[in-house]
Amino acid sequence: MGSMQRTIDWADGAVVIIDQTALPREFRLLRLETVDELISAIQRLAVRGAPALGAAGALGVALSALRHGGDVGAVEADAERVARARPTAVNLGWGVRRALAKLPGGPESVLAEAKAVLDEDERTNRQASANAAELILARCPRRPLRLLTHCNAGRLATVGWGTALGVVWHLHEAGQIEYVLADETRPLLQGSRLTAWELAEAGVPYRVLPDSAAASAIARGMVDCVVVGADRIAANGDVANKIGTYPLALAADRHGVPFVVVAPQSTVDAELPDGAGIVLEERADAEVTSAGGTPVAPAGAKAFNPAFDVTPAELVLAVVTEHGRFP
Ligand SMILES: CSC[C@@H](O)[C@@H](O)C(=O)COP(=O)(O)O
């Protein structure tokens, strides 16, 4: 049910998203009619994942342009607020800039550009993940393959199809997947809530594991390849992705397991020479000091809660986009 629904779309003058805070308990859609509602949905991760945030950025500018018409200053101010809703995924600002560039043509051309961003997304991710699937088949001799992934880089992180999980869909169609290990992805559990839900829907054999068990799984020879998405890729190939990605890359390197990153070209920040310049979002202490809304740490406990980390290019076998290997 709901499997053909886009993660984020435009319908009857509003942005419609799959509410990712409700999954897997409930599949429900949210209608966002204002820029403020969209920004709030981005910040509480009701819509999330770098490519989906690119679409959200473009649609946010469309919402504003349709509301403010010829008031360029008002639309530019809204665009700036949307672009700053979260700092790490470069796609958010990319989507905003693409739509904003069409403002001189009027609100309808802004909306048309936002819709083009959405339409391109699935095509691009299918191609990027097909390229990565080919590379993995060439580099990993064991059949069928046992993959490990982190966070959610599935259709829920994009408008449709997905990036790292897109690789799984291609390989599963070809009968080449034995199983997928899905890191639960502390603290917000995108792995156990979202990736597991997608894998179950698609009928792919999987197990959820604590993030802290991933290095052991790699060391015990249970993983042929680690495949993840990205939030921002610097010009030298350093990769920012969900917190916990860097330790996976270290473990994979130590045990000679290929570590592959799959992303659309829009996730490359060509102006950034290396990963040192990437702003890593820090989120609220309560996400760590509570579990499911119940406090688990002593009252007043402080947390270190970065949402992302940076994996240096030297630990990455390949960054794969729709154009092939990057750079
Ligand atoms: C194709 S999604 C790639 C990344 O955006 C994904 O792995 C990730 O880190 C998402 O983080 P999130 O905080 O859930 O937005």
From TrEMBL:
Q: List its EC numbers.
A: 5.3.1.23
* Site feature Transition state stabilizer, where: 151
Active-site positions on this chain: 231
EC top class named in words: isomerase
**Which Pfam family is an annotated match for this chain, by its short name?**
IF-2B
What pathway is it annotated to? Amino-acid biosynthesis; L-methionine biosynthesis via salvage pathway; L-methionine from S-methyl-5-thio-alpha-D-ribose 1-phosphate: step 1/6
Instruction: List the GO biological process terms.
Output: L-methionine salvage from methylthioadenosine
Show the catalytic activity.
5-(methylsulfanyl)-alpha-D-ribose 1-phosphate = 5-(methylsulfanyl)-D-ribulose 1-phosphate
Keyword Lyase found: no
- GO MF annotation: an example: S-methyl-5-thioribose-1-phosphate isomerase activity
- Record bears the keyword Isomerase: yes
Residues engaged in binding substrate: 48-50, 86, 190, 241-242
What top-level branch of life does the organism fall under? Bacteria
Which keywords describe this protein according to UniProt?
Amino-acid biosynthesis, Isomerase, Methionine biosynthesis
Q: What does this protein do?
A: Catalyzes the interconversion of methylthioribose-1-phosphate (MTR-1-P) into methylthioribulose-1-phosphate (MTRu-1-P).
Protein family (similarity comment): Belongs to the EIF-2B alpha/beta/delta subunits family. MtnA subfamily.
Official protein name in the record:
Methylthioribose-1-phosphate isomerase
